[in-house]
Amino acid sequence: MMRIPLLLAALVLQPPPGQSEFVPVNELPPAERLQAAPFLIGAYAFVWIAVMFYLWTIWRRLDRVEADIDALARKTPPR
Predict the structure, then answer these.
(1) Is the model's pTM score more than 0.85?
(2) Which of 7, 10, 26, 57 has the fewest Cβ atoms nearer than 10 Å?
(3) How far is CA 21 from CA 18, 24, in A?
(4) Cα–Cα distance, 37 to 45 (Å, whole number)
């Protein structure tokens, strides 16, 4: 007796059939287009710029540390 409602629920909850062919973006209905594409591209650009800036600051700090080590090496007498 419990199998019939479960079977009906399984039939009702089936996903819609998949797309079988290529459809260009300009032919998609407006509801299926990616409206937030500019925001997505902007977010990726911001993250990449932030990562590059962070790596640049690490590179600059590393140069300063290497210069300090070289200066200390010149000041200390050899053993």
Answers:
(1) no
(2) 26
(3) 9, 10
(4) 12
Q: Which residues fall within 8 angstroms of residue 33, CB to CB, at 6 or more apart?
A: 25
Residue labelled with tokens 């790596």? 55
pLDDT of residue 39: 93
Residues of the chain scoring pLDDT < 50: none
Q: Give the integer Cα–Cα distance in Å for 13 and 15.
A: 6
- The number of helix segments (H) and strand segments (E) in the chain equals 2, 0
DSSP string over the chain? --HHHHHHHHHHTPPPPPP-S---GGGS-GGGS-TTHHHHHHHHHHHHHHHHHHHHHHHHHHHHHHHHHHHHHHHSPP-
